[in-house]
Automatic annotation (TrEMBL):
It comes from Jatrophihabitans telluris. This is EAL domain-containing protein. Residues 1-255 form the EAL domain. Transmembrane segments: none annotated.
């Protein structure tokens, strides 16, 4: 079976699943939310990573159905596993959205899925990638504005890697910026990286935006971010993306 038709057949089945990575406070390690990251359990291939099929799905349009399934799974998983764990009850889930999903009915579909799963809109974040936005900025803005009115938050993903980050901040309704991991890796070894990070944190403060630092892999990076007042971090140091049934064990929350 070629990848195209195999992916088509995977839609609506449990071959497509969500893994989750915690987003935490670097000061006390309390869990604030989770990013949902898609995986494809393709028969005969094992667990396939998104880089190997999301670009294809964007080209052939399957991303719309995949995105809906993913959003539903992510909302359901959050409801189910946070219902049993007191400390996670206020956590949000952050779902990646491809530009090709932002059609006119996107707002309705999202609200429908929130309604069906019972997840309050305030507990959903939609992550939009800078590089994915180039198509139609006006339409994107209208859709995101409607979602924000409903209480859903919007994050600008991979911030700092696109060539028009600042332009997007001016034109799009954004609540959160996710600082790309290329700024975090050299943070404790390269003064320029630290200076750039300070600029981004100041920018976020001036615009009253929240910040999530991505790709935190060491205790030193976490401490440096904590010291700078960055209140949300994500990365292997705090937890890798895992299946939801493994999350409470990874976080040490099992009794
Ligand atoms: O774990 P990582 O390999 O999970 O993810 C690689 C890339 O795939 C990231 O850029 C991420 O944004 C993207 N990605 C992961 N899950 C999804 C998804 O559900 N939808 C879309 N559109 N992109 C995703
Ligand atoms: O949506 P986005 O492009 O931000 O996707 C996040 C990607 O980063 C996923 O592929 C995820 O598995 C990966 N990731 C998460 N934490 C770390 C980390 O600490 N280091 C590295 N190198 N990658 C990470
Ligand atoms: Mn993301
Ligand atoms: Na990112």
């Amino acid at each position: 079976l070629d990848t195209d038709s195999a992916l088509h057949q995977a839609i609506g089945t449990d071959q497509l699943l969500a893994h989750f990575q915690p987003i935490v406070d670097p000061g006390d390690r309390s869990v604030l939310g989770f990013e949902a990251l898609i995986r494809w359990n393709r028969p005969g291939h094992g667990l396939v990573q998104p880089d190997e099929f999301i670009p294809l799905a964007q080209e052939n349009g399957l991303i719309v159905a995949i995105g809906r399934q993913m959003l539903r799974s992510a909302c359901q998983a959050l409801i189910e596993w946070t219902a049993t764990t007191e400390s996670l009850r206020a956590c949000y889930v952050s779902v990646n959205v491809a530009a090709a999903e932002l059609h006119d009915d996107y707002h309705d579909r999202v609200l429908q899925i929130l309604d069906e799963t019972g997840l309050p809109p305030e507990r959903l974040v939609l992550e939009i990638t800078e590089s994915a936005l180039l198509t139609d900025i006006d339409r994107t803005r209208q859709i995101l504005e409607k979602l924000r009115v409903a209480g859903v938050r919007v994050a600008l993903d991979d911030f700092g890697t696109g060539y028009s980050s600042l332009s997007y901040l001016r034109q799009l309704p954004v609540d959160i910026i996710k600082i790309d991991r290329s700024f975090i890796g050299p943070l404790t070894t390269t003064p320029r990286a630290a200076a750039l990070l300070d600029v981004v944190l100041n920018l976020a403060e001036a615009l009253e935006l929240s910040v999530v630092a991505e790709g935190v892999e060491t205790a030193e990076q976490a401490a440096a971010l904590d010291l700078r007042g960055c209140r949300s971090v994500q990365g292997y140091h705090f937890g890798r993306p895992v299946a939801p049934e493994r999350m409470t064990a990874q976080l040490g929350l099992d009794e």
